[in-house]
Inverse folding.
């Protein structure tokens, strides 16, 4: 065989080896995948985080419901954009589905943030989530805030403890002068009135902010303390149930409108009350595990006298919030009363 013939043979062999080989048993799967409606899903947490694993579970259920007609690719760790831009990203179609945190978008979800009022009495993620979904589905108070997106569900986080480096918090006075990362909205106002210096720092930057003493501590749910390994930088955690956060899970509205009815049905099974409740239960299970096994520092609670003092300040903050909401054109008292009613209704 001359050199030219050998070259041609090598090229043909290389082309054969580079060509994908589909086994007969996989042909149906490949065809289903080719015909599947594809989605890009954005969130900002690392793969090990509670929300990441919860979303992964949810995606598998939707894909199973759709029987090969849906393929969802998850983009974790804010790879598609900043956590602060999640709402704009899903509204504008940068991603098809997004999970976002209202605390990064101060002023965008003022009624939803009512659940973040300090010391509201929420027991866990499922408690707060049920309150939110009842408010959304059975009143018109929350609906306007989600009109530009197709809402899959809203959910609450676990009630925040306050984790600190070096400084131990045992009283309301101990908050004064502390630089604390606190989510936007009511918890920030509460800390301002307590004399602290609240800072709104995105989650991926918290570890180094604690390490470099840019901040003295964080108000963050238990799963976040573990998922982002913040406990490694904390000496104390005050388990005070300061407040909770509100997150939303949504799809681009045009994408939703384009879907055939059977694909919509696959999503609907994991949406609304049912989807939100399962999401919250997963979160609460993780919280229990983390509280029992992960944090090795000192966990403190408030004395009865201090609990009453923190609550009194929270009640004053609620009145300030009502006045502020009323000034913005909302019926602040009606919104607050409805939250209190539902918190009591679903308390366990």
């Amino acid at each position: 065989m001359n050199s030219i013939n050998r070259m041609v043979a090598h090229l043909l062999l290389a082309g054969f080896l580079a060509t994908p080989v589909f086994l007969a048993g996989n042909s149906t799967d490949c065809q289903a995948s080719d015909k599947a409606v594809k989605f890009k899903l954005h969130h900002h947490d690392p793969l090990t985080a509670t929300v990441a694993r919860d979303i992964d579970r949810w995606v598998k259920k939707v894909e199973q419901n759709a029987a090969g007609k849906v393929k969802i690719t998850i983009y974790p760790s804010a790879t598609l954009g900043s956590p602060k831009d999640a709402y704009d990203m899903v509204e504008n179609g940068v991603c098809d589905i997004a999970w976002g945190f209202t605390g990064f978008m101060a002023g965008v979800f003022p009624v939803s943030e009512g659940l973040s009022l300090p010391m509201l009495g929420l027991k866990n993620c499922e408690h707060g989530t049920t309150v939110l979904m009842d408010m959304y589905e059975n009143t018109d108070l929350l609906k306007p805030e989600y009109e530009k997106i197709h809402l899959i569900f809203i959910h609450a986080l676990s009630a925040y403890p306050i984790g600190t480096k070096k400084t131990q918090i045992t009283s309301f006075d101990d908050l004064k002068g502390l630089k604390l990362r606190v989510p936007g909205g009511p918890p920030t106002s509460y800390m301002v009135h307590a004399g602290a210096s609240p800072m709104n720092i995105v989650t991926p930057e918290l570890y180094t902010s604690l390490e470099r003493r840019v901040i003295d501590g964080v108000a963050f749910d238990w799963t976040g303390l573990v998922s982002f390994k913040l406990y490694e930088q904390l000496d104390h955690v005050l388990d005070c149930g300061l407040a909770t956060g509100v997150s939303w899970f949504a799809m681009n509205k045009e994408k939703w409108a384009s879907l055939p009815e059977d694909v919509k049905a696959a999503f609907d099974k994991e949406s609304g009350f049912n989807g939100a409740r399962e999401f919250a239960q997963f979160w609460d299970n993780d919280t229990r595990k983390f509280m029992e096994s992960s944090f090795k520092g000192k966990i403190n609670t408030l004395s009865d006298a201090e609990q009453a003092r923190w609550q009194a300040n929270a009640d004053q903050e609620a009145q300030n919030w009502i006045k502020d909401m009323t000034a913005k054109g909302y019926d602040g008292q009606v919104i607050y009363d409805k939250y209190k009613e539902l918190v009591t209704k679903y308390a366990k």
User: Anything to note?
Assistant: Residues 1-32 have pLDDT under 50 and may be disordered. The first strand starts at residue 37 and ends at 42. The chain has 13 helices and eleven strands.
